[in-house]
Design goal:
Strand 1 and strand 2 form a beta hairpin. Helix 6 packs antiparallel against helix 10. The N terminus is likely disordered. This protein starts with 14 loop residues before the first helix and ends with a helix. By secondary structure, it is an all-alpha fold. About 50% of the residues are buried.
């Protein structure tokens, strides 16, 4: 009897292919490190007193806002790259498409950095759309039942929200045209075309821009793309969307607030307030129903967007808290999604029910996931606690007790529902005997870095970084 021929595992990279792609992940880490060193070098070398600096014929600008977010997104990307390098060595499926994945990620980061630096609203709008086109093929590599369907719906929702934003631009142009005013969408010139007089086209344009970008941030009512995309995408892609693309959309909102200082401030406040209310209520209801830890993190992101919207609706005293909250959320989202990816690789599921006693099976990842949940829920000594206290203080100073009460109630519901789902998963009795998993220090390294940054931002922040946060807060009427 002849032996049956051995069949090759389709998920395992061929030895020759593995040899040809071995350099890709280390190169990705190297490029990410160079981008991070460049952003830190600019932060150290260029004092705030010399800002803004205009580049590329004034199409790009380096000011406090762009400097802060270039630093944040490149720091996050370095952590994601190190995580991807550690996972690629032991994941055959990842080894097979690492080249295309790394190429898309680098293109995505180039576009995002240009978007953050953009000094023109239309250019920023285009770059956000291009970043979406780069991210969609990454989303399609996920493990959802229909990953391509998830990617197409992500593209559809992004196109819709950005189309609404573009219609807002057209309304502003119509307002200026009817008044016989030349309009430029450069960030430092658009205010010259605005009017303090009641103007329906101008108000409609502002409303549509905030509504469209709010959808891109995952604010209600245009939030439904976010939980599905964050859950269905690979964890590294979820982290990119939640901690990188989210922040370029935040920069776009900040630019609009900077442009409209003194124009329609009451209208801006009311729109952000309503979207913040709706987002917190939706997040609280959905977190109570969530039985999937990745989807739970996604709805917590909707909650975070609601807190940001409420803080921006108040402005003034809450502005510093909003900026600190946005920065800290970039790191905690990344920490949680990357740790969730590690849990998925061991347990093979995103459901909470099959997981119990994780901290005994995966002591390091379980502990880091627990820390991430504590940060997400606003525990001291992390930055999220300080940021939420500053936002609540600003809301009280503004005299909006309804917003204060709603935020406290919804955050309490989210706290209880999240704890009820996650804490038994981490510390509960194990379902059967499962051996302890050895974890690589390389996998843990970026997560430890994120935790360190979160503690530093919540306890002691270097003066030069505090001044940068204050400058950004002042630019949005803080």
């Amino acid at each position: 009897m002849t032996a049956a021929p051995l069949t090759e595992n389709p998920d395992r990279a061929a030895p020759g292919e593995r040899a040809r792609t071995r350099w890709v992940a280390p190169t990705l880490v190297l490029v990410a490190a160079l981008m991070w060193f460049a952003s830190v070098g600019v932060f150290i070398a260029v004092p705030l007193t010399e800002l803004p600096l205009h580049l590329a014929e004034r199409h790009l600008v380096l000011d406090a806002t762009s400097m802060l977010f270039v630093l944040v997104v490149n720091t996050v990307f370095l952590g994601i790259s190190v995580y991807l390098y550690s996972r690629e060595r032991t994941t055959p499926a990842l080894q097979r498409d690492i080249r295309s994945r790394a190429g898309l990620m680098l293109l995505f980061m180039l576009v995002v950095n240009l978007g953050v630096l953009s000094n023109h609203l239309v250019l920023m709008w285009v770059l956000i759309e291009v970043s979406t086109l780069c991210a969609a093929p990454l989303v399609a590599r996920g493990d959802a039942p229909s990953p391509k369907g998830v990617a197409w719906r992500y593209l559809l929702y992004s196109a819709m929200t950005l189309a609404i934003t573009f219609i807002g631009f057209m309304c502003l142009a119509q307002s200026a045209h009817l008044r016989g005013v030349e309009i430029s969408f450069a960030v430092d010139q658009l205010a010259l075309a605005l009017t303090h007089q009641p103007d329906g086209w101008q108000r409609l344009g502002l409303a549509l821009m905030l509504f469209g970008l709010g959808g891109k941030l995952g604010l209600a009512p245009l939030y439904s793309w976010l939980p599905e995309t964050y859950e269905g995408a690979p964890t590294s892609t979820s982290a990119l969307l939640a901690a990188v693309q989210f922040n370029v959309s935040v920069v776009a909102v900040f630019r609009i607030l900077q442009i409209f200082q003194g124009f329609e401030s009451g209208f801006v406040s009311q729109e952000l307030l309503v979207m913040g209310y709706l987002s917190l209520v939706v997040a609280a209801v959905q977190v109570m129903a969530a039985r999937n830890y990745k989807r739970l993190i996604a709805y917590a992101c909707v909650s975070s967007s609601g807190v940001i919207a409420l803080g921006l609706s108040v402005g003034k005293a809450a502005a510093y808290g909003v900026v600190l909250y946005v920065v800290s959320n970039a790191f905690v989202k990344c920490l949680l999604f990357l740790t969730a990816g590690r849990l998925r690789s061991v347990y093979g599921t995103n459901d909470v029910a099959p997981l119990s006693g994780v901290i005994r099976v995966m002591p390091f990842s379980g502990a880091l996931f627990g820390v991430g949940i504590f940060v997400l829920l606003g525990f001291p000594p992390f930055a999220s606690f300080l940021a939420e206290m500053l936002i609540l203080s600003g809301i009280v100073q503004a005299g909006n007790l309804m917003a204060f009460s709603l935020m406290c109630v919804m955050l309490t519901i989210i706290f209880v529902a999240t704890g009820r789902a996650v804490f038994p998963m981490l510390w509960g009795a194990s379902h059967g005997e499962r051996p302890s998993v050895q974890e690589s220090w390389i996998t843990a390294l970026p997560k430890i870095g994120f935790v360190t940054v979160l503690i530093m931002l919540g306890t002691y922040t270097p003066d030069v970084f505090t001044q940068l946060l204050q400058a950004v807060a002042q630019s949005i009427e803080g």
